[in-house]
Amino acid sequence: MSHPSKHLLAIEGLEPPHIADLLDLAESYALLNRSGKTQRDLLKGRTLINLFFEDSTRTRTSFELAGKRLGADVINMSVSTSSVNKGETLLDTASTLNAMQCDLLVIRHAQSGAPALLSQKVDAAVINAGDGTHEHPTQALLDALTIRRHKGRLEGLIVAICGDIAHSRVARSNIHLLTTMGSRVRIVGPPTLIPADAARLGVEVFTDMKAGLKDADVVMMLRLQRERMSGGLVPSAREFFRFYGLDAEKLALAKPDSIVMHPGPMNRGVEIDSAIADHPTRSVIGEQVEMGVACRMAVLDMLARRLPRNR
């Protein structure tokens, strides 16, 4: 079992066996975490740096916890207070990180392609924790693991990804992973929030929420990313909820045993009704957070196997 590359920059390009290996390893970590056992010192002597140019409490904390459970020394670099804000370029940052002898580098950046650029300049294994509107690979892995735990498989499932598809790196990574693993993926949203290259992605496109949700096994809601939008791509939040927000009436069109997902943070009453987000049997949103730690442990473990022995 090995990862095909030194880095994890995207889901696009990964083959089904590599994805399955990561999910299987993550499943073993999910069981270990639930057992309450402290983790072995797999990454003892390794340094993991979280370099977040965009805020993200959940993803950063999840990587921090994953690293610590595997025994790594974890450093969170707060970019808002670092020299990056004083005009230091990404390449200057790379030479600083090399001098620190960092082994694993988790990066989130507003520019698509920044992790790929950094991966060419640092000795560390680089993990993309979200870059612009490009990809967020570990989110797709944790979503797939959550689906697989509930449905027993990914192949043949109808997965409806709904809302702001155009600005969502989560949607892109999930589309790549789920179509690769044999799911039937639908994207559902207003025409202004459907990406221009949607047809190329191998998905079915719906602009009517009720048609898009019909007989779905999985309903994945996305956050409206107003910070990435230019101009009025959507009407008021109230109007958006009326047509595209997930409530009991719309969810009734999906399969009776369908599950509801959301990568967070949620805009309650905009893309999802609170009663659905907190539903005791249909919502798996809390479990997604738990699976995030297990998946990130699996990624760190898999990439560390390709690193040279501790320096």
Automatic annotation (TrEMBL):
Its EC number is 2.1.3.2. Belongs to the aspartate/ornithine carbamoyltransferase superfamily. ATCase family. The keyword Transferase applies. It comes from Roseomonas nitratireducens. Transmembrane segments: none annotated. Reversibly catalyzes the transfer of the carbamoyl group from carbamoyl phosphate (CP) to the N(epsilon) atom of ornithine (ORN) to produce L-citrulline. Catalyzes the condensation of carbamoyl phosphate and aspartate to form carbamoyl aspartate and inorganic phosphate, the committed step in the de novo pyrimidine nucleotide biosynthesis pathway. PANTHER family: ASPARTATE CARBAMOYLTRANSFERASE, ORNITHINE CARBAMOYLTRANSFERASE, MITOCHONDRIAL. This is Aspartate carbamoyltransferase.
